[in-house]
Design a protein that fits this description.
alpha+beta; Non-ribosomal Peptide Synthetase Peptidyl Carrier Protein, Chain A; Cathepsin B, Chain A; 3 domains; 6-stranded antiparallel sheet; two-stranded antiparallel sheet; 15 helices; 8 strands; globular
C-alpha cells in the first residue's frame, strides 16, 4: 500500500471501525495522545483493526511504541525502511552517552505513583531511592469477580509502602485523608496542609487523571486514580502541581485540580517531611527485599492465565468478546516491570559489578516488557476474533513472559545474596532461603 492508502486506512479504522470521537483534529501531524486522545490500548486497537480489516500485518517495532508520536509516524511503520546505522542506547541515562550503571545519571520510569512521590524527595536530598523500588515489580493488583485485571481497587492500600518507607528512611508518612469525612471536609484538610506547607514538606493527593485531559497521559484509563503533589503559588487561583511519576510539573488552575480530586472514583492523601530522611540500614534493606521478593512465581502472568482460561471456558457467562476489557489495564501493570532496573542498579553499584553485565540485565527487562505487550495484543486479537484457536498464541506469549521474568528473578536473587554476604550479618540465612 502507498503512504496515502495507509493514511486512509488509519482514518477509516478510527472513524468507522472504532467510532473514535476525536477525529476533528485528524491529520498527518496530529499527535496521537495529545490531539487525538489515543492511549496505549487504543493504539493497539488501531494496529489490530488494520491487521484484521486491511491485512496490514503489525510491524515488530509497533509494540514498543518508541518514536510513534504522530499519525505520520504511524503511517511510516508500514512503509519500507531504509537500513540505518545502529545507535547505542543506555537505559540508565536515557540517552546516547554511556555513563553506565556506575555514573551519576538517573533514568526514572513511571512505574508507581505513590512510590515515585515519596522517592522524589530522597533524590533531592542526595539519597539513593532505587532500593525502595524492590516492592514495585510485583506490587499488588486485583482481579475482579468478573475476572477483570485492576491496578487499583478499594481493598488495595498503600500501607505496605508507607510503613516500609518509614522504617527504611525514617520519614513519618501521615495519611491525612479520612474516609469517615465528606469529600468537602477532606478537601478542606488538604488545602490547609498545602497552605501551611514548609520547604521540606510534601502534600500528596489522589485524583482522577481522566478529568485532567490537558495532561499527557499514556494510560488514559477511565477512571485513572493517581497520586501527585501540590504546592501554593503566588496566585490564589492556581496550584503548582508536581507529578514525579510522569516527570511533569507546572501551574494549573486550582478549580480544575479540585474537580479531579472531588471525583467519586478517588479518595486518598498523605503528608510527610522529607527533611527527616536518612540512609537505610542494610539489615532493614535486606528485610524489605525479602518481604517483596516473590521468587518462584509471577503474579501478573498467573492472573492473566486465570483470566484467559475463565473467558475461554465461559465461566459465569463470560465470553471471549469480554476478554479485551478484562485485560485493558495490563499496560499499567506491565510498566512496573521496569522497577527491576532500579533493583539491579542498586546491587550493581554496591558490588561494583561490570557495567556490560548490567546492560545485559536491562535488555532482559526490556524483553520482559515487550513480551507482556505482545501478550496484551494477542489477548485483544483473541477477543476481537472470538477464535479459540488464537488462544495458543496467548498461552505461548504467557509462557515466554513467565520464563523471562523467572530468569530475571533468579539473577536478582544471586546478586542480592552476594550483597547480603558483604553487608549483613545474617547473610547465611538469606542464602539458604533463596536456595531452598
Amino acid at each position: 500500500m502507498t503512504r496515502d492508502e495507509i493514511f486512509s486506512a488509519i482514518e477509516t479504522t478510527l472513524a468507522q471501525h472504532m467510532a473514535h470521537p476525536h477525529m476533528h483534529g485528524f491529520a498527518p501531524d496530529a499527535r496521537l495522545n495529545e490531539d487525538l486522545y489515543l492511549d496505549s490500548v487504543l493504539i493497539l486497537q488501531v494496529f489490530l483493526n488494520l491487521e484484521l480489516e486491511f491485512n496490514l500485518a503489525m510491524p515488530e517495532e509497533a509494540i514498543s511504541g518508541e518514536g510513534i508520536q504522530t499519525v505520520d509516524d504511524l503511517v511510516g511503520l508500514y512503509l519500507p525502511k531504509e537500513p540505518a546505522l545502529p545507535v547505542p542506547g543506555f537505559p540508565m541515562t536515557g540517552g546516547d552517552t554511556d555513563e553506565g550503571v556506575h555514573g551519576e545519571a538517573y533514568y526514572d520510569i513511571k512505574v508507581h505513583c505513590f512510590v515515585s512521590c515519596v522517592c522524589d524527595g530522597l533524590k533531592k536530598r542526595g539519597l539513593d531511592q532505587r532500593p525502595f523500588y524492590f516492592g514495585v515489580w510485583d506490587a499488588k493488583f486485583a482481579v475482579s469477580e468478573r475476572y477483570q485485571l485492576r491496578y487499583h481497587a478499594n481493598d488495595i492500600s498503600q500501607e505496605f509502602f508507607r510503613s516500609w518507607f518509614e522504617r527504611l528512611y525514617g520519614v513519618s508518612v501521615q495519611e491525612w485523608y479520612d474516609t469517615a469525612l465528606s469529600k468537602a471536609d477532606n478537601l478542606s484538610l488538604m488545602t490547609n496542609l498545602v497552605r501551611d506547607r514548609k520547604e521540606t514538606d510534601s502534600v500528596m493527593v489522589m485524583l482522577d487523571m481522566f478529568h485532567m485531559p490537558e495532561r499527557e497521559n499514556k494510560f488514559n484509563q477511565n477512571p485513572f486514580p493517581h497520586y501527585l503533589m501540590l504546592q501554593e503559588t503566588g496566585d490564589p487561583q492556581t496550584w503548582f502541581v508536581h507529578d514525579p511519576d510522569y516527570r511533569w510539573e507546572g501551574v494549573m488552575e486550582r478549580e480544575k485540580v479540585i474537580h479531579a480530586i472531588m471525583q467519586p472514583t478517588v479518595d486518598g492523601g498523605y503528608a510527610f517531611d522529607i527533611g527527616q530522611a536518612r540512609t537505610p540500614d542494610p539489615e532493614d534493606l535486606k528485610a524489605y527485599f525479602e518481604a517483596c521478593f516473590i521468587e518462584r512465581r509471577n503474579p501478573i502472568a498467573d492472573a492473566v492465565r486465570s483470566i484467559v482460561t475463565a473467558h475461554l471456558d465461559g465461566k459465569d457467562g463470560l465470553s471471549l468478546a469480554d476478554l479485551e476489557l478484562a485485560v485493558r489495564e495490563l499496560p499499567v501493570l506491565t510498566i512496573r516491570k521496569y522497577a527491576y532496573e532500579h533493583g539491579f542498579a542498586f546491587f550493581w553499584r554496591a558490588l561494583k559489578l561490570p557495567s556490560s553485565a548490567f546492560e545485559t540485565c536491562c535488555e532482559e527487562i526490556e524483553a520482559l516488557v515487550q513480551s507482556l505487550k505482545n501478550l496484551h495484543y494477542a489477548c485483544m486479537k483473541l477477543s476481537q476474533t472470538e477464535d479459540a484457536a488464537q488462544a495458543a498464541t496467548v498461552f505461548s506469549q504467557l509462557d515466554e513472559a513467565d520464563r523471562i521474568e523467572k530468569k530475571l528473578k533468579g539473577r536478582l536473587g544471586e546478586v542480592f545474596a552476594q550483597w547480603c554476604e558483604e553487608n549483613c550479618a545474617s547473610s547465611q540465612t538469606t542464602l539458604q532461603r533463596l536456595a531452598g
